[in-house]
Design goal:
heterodimer; A: alpha/beta; Spore Coat Polysaccharide Biosynthesis Protein SpsA, Chain A; three-stranded antiparallel beta sheet; 11 helices; 11 strands; about 40% helix; about 20% strand; globular; B: alpha+beta; Alpha-Beta Plaits; 2 domains; eight-stranded mixed beta sheet; four-stranded antiparallel beta sheet
């Protein structure tokens, strides 16, 4: 699939999916079950609102979600108490699949959710979203409900407050633009069309999730993208613009730790795919994003890092300076 | 639930009703979060009203629209459309749209700017169609749900006044919903004049000639003189000085200063007399200091309302007591006044307890909401059943 075509056909805006009745009807026709998994670690400030909104709007008012589960890594605040008081099913990751032991990290919760939850589609939404809204679920679930060939829908957030020109830059956060997109541009150029590869909100069919490994830490999103791409191709992906996401900002040192985890995962995937010994020809195109009149388009930059040899090997240099 | 319900039966059903309502807690809270996160400063309520309209149409209300001034109106049809009850919650808050409107939900509290005053009121309007349907309550009267705009400050109840002046439906009674406090009960309004005294020092002001050195000092003189105005004990009268602003920095002479005040009195005549005195003070200080001093009155309420023994007031008290609430009666200067001006019997009730009112950390208690809503539904049913009319 051509990347520009993929961007046109598989990139959505949540506002296209305003008709919740229709989404629920399509879901029921297919007999789909949908589970929401919220991985948590000390999120008492935001979890209550998230559970209330999803439960009331997407279970009671429109029965899109069949279960809402909080899977916790061992919070020492009131996260579980608050979530349970508003009707979420709450689980400690340590209690799920105890024979597999417990590893610390968000990916662990996402993985164990597959065993604990029943859904044919699993929707993952982080717990630290300050401006939670039903669109965080509907925008990601609707493409899966309407398009059987789509298997993995990723969120991105693009809400310019004021921009005077027609074309403006877009894209992800610092780690995405400095690390992940350059890496994808080098090794998996098509994947660089995923505007925010690290976003923590995505909805995926179980048939996909049960077949791929889960890094337990920072690398889980990157690893998923590479594995799904490798097994099912670009057609399996969709991405939805959910407008603004308000959350905690991380300092540069935290981003360093995150990058280190992602690099480990990335290199491990290269090895698993047998790409370490057989590196592809080095790509020289970096792909970044801009929005042109509401349409997302890739901007390609040719960056060819050619090298010069040590100057001592150049005859003219040798002639002038001799041996020094 | 039958539409014809005796008052005794209605009162007996109350404790059970509160329990039933508690099952709708998440819906009310979800509406509160979504309403509360849409900023709605006075004159900027459009988006909040649009949300209310969306809720009304999702609930299948056929008759809902935004009127000329921007009020959001939805009607739940009754069996006898020649009667109607108006429920109103003001949609505006005192918070500018630049304030972070994030709402947080804890086990027994919802916190965020405006959640109590009056996002909870609007959230209830949005929840009522589902609540009434879920509880099987059908009314004889049409129930008009009004999200009123331009209520606070300079808005001066414009939304509700416009609706009352222009709507063709015969309104037998009004209920004003405020988020807090739970035990409040208002059925009368006191006279009120709301305004500003503004001092401006002219640009060409001769600083060496006059004693006063800034607009703040001039305004201070005015404040001192206002405090010297003698106030009668009866009828009860008061002057509230609610806010003062002026100047720009530590060491720049303040060219402008503004005092916001309200005169409240059980007597309209006395309130007007005090306004005259403040006007005189302004002229006197202006001529002495050379500053421009202006008094601008932009909102007023006439005293009035239903009597203590009016069936609407007595029934509301009975309902509250039956729910274990101790009614705290106090006159109001809010929406109630617009009903009083048109001689429509009306009351104001609160829905739950709250803290830090009108601060960004404003919060409401979750566990008492069901009781507050039970009180509201019972009052509506009592009006509908004819238990609140003067015979």
């Amino acid at each position: 699939m051509n990347i520009d075509q993929w961007l046109r056909e598989n990139t959505f805006h949540h506002s296209s999916f305003w008709d919740l009745k229709n989404i629920v009807a399509a879901k029921e026709r297919q007999g789909l079950k949908i589970s929401l998994c919220i991985p948590t670690l000390n999120e008492e400030k935001t979890i209550g609102k998230e559970v209330v909104i999803f439960k009331s709007e997407l279970m009671h008012r429109y029965p899109l979600l069949d279960e809402i589960a909080v899977i916790d890594s061992g919070s020492d605040d009131k996260t579980l108490e608050v979530a349970e008081s508003f009707g979420a099913d709450v689980y400690r990751a340590a209690d799920i699949l105890p024979e597999c032991g417990l590893k610390r990290g968000k990916g662990e919760n996402l993985w164990k959710a597959l065993y604990q939850l029943d859904g044919d589609i699993i929707l993952y939404v982080d717990a630290d979203i300050k401006n939670i809204h039903p669109r965080f679920a509907t925008g990601l679930l609707a493409p899966l409900v309407y398009r059987p060939e789509v298997k993995y829908v990723k969120a991105f957030y693009d809400r310019p407050l004021a921009f005077s020109q027609g074309v403006r830059p877009s894209g992800g956060g610092r780690v995405t633009e400095i690390l992940v997109r350059p890496l994808f541009s080098l090794f998996f150029p098509e994947l660089s069309a995923i505007i925010q590869p690290l976003s923590g909100e995505y909805a995926v069919r179980r048939e996909v999730l049960q077949e791929i490994p889960f890094p337990i830490g920072y690398g889980v999103e990157t690893s998923h993208l590479i594995d799904v791409y490798h097994k099912w191709g670009m057609e399996a992906f969709g991405q939805t613009d959910l407008d603004q996401r308000v959350h905690r900002n991380q300092d540069t040192r935290s981003l360093g730790r995150m990058s280190f985890g992602i690099l480990q995962t990335f290199l491990r995937r290269l090895r698993a795919l047998g790409m370490v010994d057989k590196l592809p020809d080095m790509a020289t195109t970096l792909r970044q994003f801009q929005v042109n009149d509401k349409a997302f388009e890739q901007v390609r930059y040719e960056i060819d890092e050619e090298e010069r040899p040590p100057i001592a090997t150049v005859p003219a240099y040798q002639k002038k300076f001799g041996k020094r | 639930m039958s539409t014809d319900i005796g008052k005794g039966e209605l009162l007996r059903s109350l404790p059970g009703l509160a329990k039933e309502i508690a099952k709708y807690r998440e819906m009310i809270l979800a509406n509160l979060v979504m309403v509360g996160e849409i900023p709605a400063p006075t004159f900027g309520e459009k988006e909040r009203i649009a949300f209310l309209m969306q809720r009304f149409s999702e609930c299948g209300l056929h008759n809902c629209s935004v009127d000329e001034v921007g009020n959001g109106v939805g009607v739940i049809d009754g069996e006898e459309p020649e009667r109607s009850i108006l429920l109103v919650a003001h949609a505006d808050t005192i918070f500018a749209d630049t304030v972070d409107h994030t709402v947080t939900v804890a086990t027994d509290a919802v916190t965020g700017p405006g959640v109590a005053d009056n996002s909870l009121g609007v959230a209830l309007l949005a929840s009522l169609p589902t609540l009434l349907e879920g509880l099987g309550i059908r009314l004889k009267s049409d129930l008009i749900l009004l999200g009123g705009v331009q209520s606070l400050g300079r808005g001066n109840l414009k939304g509700l006044r416009f609706f009352l002046a222009n709507n063709p439906m015969p309104i037998q009674a009004g209920v004003c919903i405020e988020g807090v406090p739970l035990e409040r009960l208002s059925y009368s309004s006191i006279g009120m004049l709301r305004g500003e005294v503004s001092c401006a020092v002219p640009v060409e002001y001769d600083w060496s000639r006059f004693g006063a050195t800034s607009a703040i000092v001039t305004l201070n003189e005015i404040v001192t003189k206002i405090l010297e105005i003698p106030l009668p004990r009866r009828p009860k009268t008061n002057i509230f000085m609610g806010s003062i602003a002026g100047g720009t920095s530590f060491n720049t002479i303040a060219r402008n200063a503004v005092l916001r005040f309200e005169i409240r009195s059980e007597s309209a005549e006395i309130a007007h007399h005090i306004w005259g005195q403040i006007d005189d003070i302004a002229s006197e200080v202006s001529s002495q200091s050379g500053a421009d001093v202006a008094v601008d009155i932009f909102a007023r309420r006439e005293p009035g309302g239903v009597h203590f023994r009016h069936p609407l007031a007595t029934t509301a008290r009975e309902i509250m007591r039956k729910l274990g609430l101790q009614p705290r009666t106090a006159p109001s200067t809010s929406e109630l006044s617009a009903f009083i001006d048109r001689s429509i019997p009306a009351i104001t009730v609160g829905i739950t307890e709250g803290e830090n009112l009108n601060e960004e950390s404003e919060s409401i208690k979750i566990s008492t909401i069901a009781t507050g809503v039970a009180q509201l539904l019972a009052i509506i049913r009592a009006i509908d059943g004819g238990h609140c009319h003067e015979h």
